[in-house]
Amino acid sequence: MNQQTLTGILRRLKIELLNEMQAAFMEAGQKHDELILLSPTGSGKTLAFLLPILEQLKDHGRTTRVMIIVPSRELALQIESVFKSLGTTYKVTCCYGGHKREIEENSLVEPPALLIGTPGRIADHIRRENITTKSISTIILDEFDKSLEAGFEDEMAFIIQSLPSLKKRILTSATEAVEIPAFVGLTNPFRLNFAKPDQGPEKLAIKTVSSPDKDKLETLFHLLCQLGSRSTVIFCNHRESVERTSAWLKDKGITNVYYHGAMEQQERETALFKFRSGTVVHLVTTDLAARGLDIPNIRYIIHYHLPSTQDVFTHRNGRTARMDASGTVIVILGPEEEKPGYLDSDTVEMKLDKTSLIPEKPQWSALFMAAGKKDKINKVDIVGFLTNKAMLKKEDIGLIDVKDFSAFVAVRRTKVGEALRLIKGQKIKNQKVRIEIAK
What we know:
By secondary structure, this protein is an alpha/beta fold.
């Protein structure tokens, strides 16, 4: 982009100069085909990645050249608004759930130069062949960490696999606390890191709680009551302890699931989906969950048993302070246990008020479906089935996870009973599928 064009755009936007991050990205965008931009929310990322793509939209020949994938319709509309404010003549189409698909289909008849949308809706249009994918050479995954957090991994993988002419890949995020999946196709990306230095694990708070009894169950119970219904992982050192603790908490009225290596695969998948989708907010587990557990927004880590080493302590704690860059670790110490050396001497001790107010039950329930990818069923099919046959609104449907031969879907708790009644005996994609509350 020549200086005259840039000056004209900035004048229209009533901006005197690009900020440091925007200027650096403009330069990098001209030199590199794989870019990762880390920058805080509100720092001007949208303008930073929109300016360099204007060159690629020249002579687009009534084809779509650039696609921007975002985690929410609000962000899609925001980017569309910024793009229109640039004052170009290029057509832009915005695709997202919550309004009629036909409106978007009519707009896509004449391909836009720039296409912006949420993963589910864009994937739906690709499957319906409403989008000519072979002309798209640039993809931007804006706030890609949030898209992963929202469970859009399958849709994003499908979209990227459907773009045969892809040359340029741009990813933006406010944090680097998420691993970039292989399906994105990055080989040697150029990174620009403008993230705030106080974002990340250093915002982790570590506290201790003293248990008057060697058996810490009563202390754990009162602690959970005090913490409320925030996402919490409770680490025990043995499988037997995991199951005992889980059962004891259930008897006391605290809904939870447990997870350890001796469980059947189906049991493990069910437990993790319930926790990941928010249909259960307490997970009792062994150190199996200390590595590789991809669950965002875990607020609390509780060490019911002391970890065997400092490394284990660190790995357990790594489950929190990731996506939302904040979290609290709580170590329960029995009367005969000393504070481990890896805890600072000035670590704050929490005082429990011995409340017995049970945390509120989650607003979501998990449904199990005995069919999956191998039965040609995907997330779009499930949403369509539940909205048409179960009369659910989009906002009544939460996270969906489709496995090879099964699927899980989170449904608003108040709607589950009626939904199951309405879909009894109904077919999904001409198949009779067993659907029940996930056990």
